[in-house]
Write a sequence for this structure.
């Protein structure tokens, strides 16, 4: 088998690796803990190198079968220069020419980009967004990330940081946010906020979101109410996106989205009630299809874009 | 002179006509009152026909010198089918094949689109947005309209109604809006709201925005405070656009923007304080350059796009 792509999804807690074939199957996967190598960026890079070689060896895939490597990272990336500008949640990563470093090691074309953009690319070509020219992808997790496919292309923005749905303010006043602003969407529906809300409603600091999901399945009123309130915030945030971009499709992924059964009907209702008629009528809200693999799939799409100068 | 374009900007109160040459000069202009022909759409169309012929005659330009006609209208337009879907402020305009009607009359290629999108196209190629691949254009007036140039192209959205900046909610709660939603940006900075605000602050229902501008020039504290409060709302609304789209440029036009001297410094400050650092650092906020002619210029750009099937 030839024309395989190696995808690497660098997260704040875990680095996921996988090899995708041309048909869009992930053949093999592995992962390592980011936190173990947090003190030194070179340690993390060397650890990823070792994991790539081990993955190839274990799966009996040779480097000659790999046509390129795509890497997603949680922060500001310049995909044209192949430069990691900064990673807010992984210390000491600033202005790292990661594309060049990987090309030197493996002698293959390498592309890098922001992780939410990689997920968006993956869902667009292999997941819930197949065949669309325009879509919005949103990830609900610790943070609220996003990516935009507009006019048949990933839209990156002037500084490659477009898509920050989580930092659209949803109120003129509100709590301050990590981003330096306040009243942000993420401040209402990010994981930390949801856990605080759960602790307040149930009076139990140890209750997790899956615990509340389990309660909702048993029709617990407080749990159902919790999800409804969260969904109203999500709907309110998305109305701005729907009216501004008139997308035919919004894909919602990320850990929190696995509660979609209790979230999506209300999100849909809020958008129908509050967004402009034409926009509301045509937008579909769907759950992401690729789960944890989305970024790995995105690597394949990113490489096909052929950004940057390759070795 | 050849290769002239006739631009027609249909507004709720006035229809403006102009002829633009290839260098981007408006050679001649005329206008008519929309309201005089409000009762019947065919009356308005016939009146525009007559004004086009009079404009050509008066300026000694022959139809053979005109390479095409571009028409902007205040509502939902399908530029590919050349169809006026609906015009909220001009009664009885629904599903009007305006492109075909004009092509039949003049035997020239005709393109039609939404007026805010025409202004955006005009400012992009001939005004404040020259040379940019990405920009946001916002018009402040009776309504708050908008247009998006993304990835080097006008972004229309799935139903051709993208760009509704005025109907992005800026609060989760708020007054109901004409659009069917509530808490919209337009509800804070549209003309009607500004006049109400002026009446409240000054206790005078007859005071206009230009009157308050004149007071602000004399350093009247209430007038300065009025513009500051309006600018804070505009800034808050734009933070969402800046974080989502990471544009290098936001062009602000429309009647209210002529108070830019008292609005722009505060808009700029709010964006710097509240938007994400990379986005805030790179975005420039500028005043539109083409004034009332922007839509006429836009006709030239729209025709160059070559949408729809022409006669």
């Amino acid at each position: 088998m030839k024309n395989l792509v190696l995808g690497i999804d660098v997260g704040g807690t875990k680095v996921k690796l996988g090899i995708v074939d041309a048909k869009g199957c992930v053949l093999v996967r592995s992962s390592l803990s980011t936190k173990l190598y947090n003190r030194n960026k070179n340690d993390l890079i060397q650890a990823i190198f070792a994991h790539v070689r081990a993955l190839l060896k274990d799966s009996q895939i040779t480097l000659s079968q790999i046509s390129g490597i795509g890497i997603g990272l949680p922060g500001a990336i310049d995909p044209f220069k192949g430069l990691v500008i900064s990673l807010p949640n992984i210390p000491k990563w600033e202005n790292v020419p990661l594309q060049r470093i990987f090309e030197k090691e493996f002698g293959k074309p390498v592309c890098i980009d922001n992780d939410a953009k990689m997920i968006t690319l993956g869902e667009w070509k292999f997941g819930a967004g197949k065949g669309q020219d325009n879509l919005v992808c949103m990830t609900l997790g610790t943070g609220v990330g996003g990516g935009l496919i507009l006019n048949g292309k990933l839209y990156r923005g002037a500084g490659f940081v477009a898509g920050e749905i989580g930092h659209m303010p949803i109120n003129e006043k509100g709590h301050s946010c990590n981003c330096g602003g306040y009243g942000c969407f993420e401040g209402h529906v990010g994981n930390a906020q949801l856990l605080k809300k759960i602790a307040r409603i149930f009076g139990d600091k140890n209750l997790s979101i899956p615990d509340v999901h389990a309660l909702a399945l048993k029709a617990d009123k407080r749990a159902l109410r919790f999800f409804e309130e969260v969904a109203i915030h999500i709907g309110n945030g998305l109305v701005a996106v729907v009216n501004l971009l008139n997308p035919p499709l919004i894909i919602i992924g990320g850990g929190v989205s696995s509660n979609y059964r209790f979230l999506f009907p209300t999100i849909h209702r809020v958008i129908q009630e509050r967004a402009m008629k034409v926009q509301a009528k045509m937008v579909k809200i769907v759950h992401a299809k690729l789960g944890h693999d989305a970024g790995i799939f995105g690597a394949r799409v990113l490489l096909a874009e052929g950004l940057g100068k390759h070795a």
